[in-house]
């Protein structure tokens, strides 16, 4: 067979395989559905450096400031200075060449359009994509202005956002090195010795397993499963809450929460007025109602969490919390 006919046979077999396997697969398992144009539009939200993909809209510093205080400041601080290990969003000019570079939108990011893309895609953390386009333009204007990149009376929109030059725009170079060094790749004994130089735990990136893990292991049978499912659900809370007495993150420690007055911890300073004056005492029913719909149950409270709608999931979480938050004495 000449090369072309060989190729043709290979191509034919490939097509045959794809077609038959494709259809056979679909028939046999009945998995998946064709994505609708609406679904594709929902995912297809990337914005390029030149602004391609930006939706129409506009916003100002002033509008953005109000939104930022309400939706972002609980983690990033009122001026973008950030609490704890949350990212700093403002400042860091000229720090990139120092011993202690502060990489912010202002000091580091090369494109202004990325700020819009990122905020629209991912923020507020835990409630992504709840801002309108105009609100996103407004917070973007707020952040750019706080970083002294635009004036505070600038009306940001889809046309002028891509024209904004970021301070570190020219700070990036193309890395000309090939991905893989030339020659045979080393596959064996490539390093003389391996030394662990850091642990994710020290960086506080990976949440620690706490007492609850031990508790789950001690409970038997059906309840253990419940507890273990509840513990999985609690992963949604870990970014903001610990179960350790006195250890607060964005939210207060949940240690000893049952029987506690809402907003009742003396050493947690960031409760909202709404929480402190709600008159709620935490027990099964109130916790369930709150966690199902935080914004509705205590109007004006500041927990940036959408809620858990599934009853089973809520019950499991409550079982887990009852065991793992109990004050130990
Ligand atoms: C509950 C805490 C929380 C809230 C509220 C929140 N963020 Fe964030 N934000 C984060 C975390 C955590 C990251 C880092 C995420 C990552 O790296 O995966 C982040 C990252 C960012 C970044 C990227 C910073 C960088 O330099 O990499 C921007 C910009 C940002 N947030 C803007 C906002 C805006 C605007 C709002 C309000 C609309 C907001 N955030 C609300 C927690 C929060
Ligand atoms: C993005 C951060 C965040 C997430 C995620 C989050 N919380 Fe909160 N939580 C808070 C903040 C902030 C408060 C204080 C709210 C206020 O004072 O208005 C709070 C308050 C609470 C309170 C009241 C505590 C007290 O001392 O009165 C409970 C209970 C609670 N959260 C449970 C949970 C549980 C359970 C989850 C997970 C299902 C969860 N939270 C997820 C930030 C968060």
TrEMBL record:
Gene3D superfamilies: Cytochrome c-like domain
Residue ranges of domain Cytochrome c in the record: 59-147, 225-325
Organism: Candidatus Entotheonella gemina
Domain of life, per lineage: Bacteria
Keyword Membrane in annotation: no
Protein name as annotated: Cytochrome c domain-containing protein
Classification lineage: Bacteria, Pseudomonadati, Nitrospinota/Tectimicrobiota group, Candidatus Tectimicrobiota, Candidatus Entotheonellia
The UniProt record lists the keyword RNA-binding: no
GO terms of molecular function: electron transfer activity; heme binding; metal ion binding
Keywords attached to this entry: Electron transport, Heme, Iron, Metal-binding, Transport
TM annotation in the entry: none
């Amino acid at each position: 067979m000449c090369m072309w006919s060989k190729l043709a046979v290979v191509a034919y077999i490939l097509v045959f395989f794809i077609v038959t396997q494709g259809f056979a697969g679909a028939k046999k398992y009945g998995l998946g559905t064709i994505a609708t144009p609406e679904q594709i539009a929902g995912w297809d939200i990337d914005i390029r450096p030149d602004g391609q993909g930006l939706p129409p809209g506009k916003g100002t510093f002033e509008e953005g400031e109000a939104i930022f205080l309400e939706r972002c400041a609980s983690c990033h601080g009122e001026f973008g200075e950030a609490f704890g290990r949350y990212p700093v969003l403002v400042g860091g000019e000229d720090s990139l060449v120092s011993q202690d570079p502060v990489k912010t939108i202002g000091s580091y990011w090369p494109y202004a359009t990325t700020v819009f893309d990122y905020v629209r895609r991912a923020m507020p953390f835990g409630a992504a994509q709840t801002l309108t386009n105009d609100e996103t333009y407004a917070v973007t204007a707020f952040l750019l202005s706080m970083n002294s990149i635009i004036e505070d009376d600038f009306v940001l929109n889809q046309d002028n956002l891509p024209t904004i030059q970021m301070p570190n725009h020219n700070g990036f170079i193309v890395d000309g090195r090939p991905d893989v060094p030339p020659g045979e790749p080393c596959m064996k004994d490539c390093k003389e010795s391996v030394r662990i130089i850091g642990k994710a735990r020290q960086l506080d990136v990976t949440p620690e397993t706490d007492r609850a893990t031990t508790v789950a292991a001690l409970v038997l049978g059906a309840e253990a499963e419940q507890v273990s499912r509840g513990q999985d659900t609690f992963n949604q809370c870990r970014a903001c809450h610990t179960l350790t007495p006195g250890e607060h993150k964005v939210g207060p420690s949940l240690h000893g929460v049952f029987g506690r007055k809402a907003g009742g911890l003396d050493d947690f300073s960031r409760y909202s007025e709404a929480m402190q004056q709600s008159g709620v005492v935490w027990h099964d029913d109130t916790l369930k109602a709150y966690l199902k719909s935080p914004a509705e149950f205590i109007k004006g409270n500041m927990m940036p969490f959408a809620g858990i709608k599934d009853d089973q999931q809520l019950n499991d979480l409550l079982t887990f919390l009852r065991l793992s938050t109990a004050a130990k004495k």
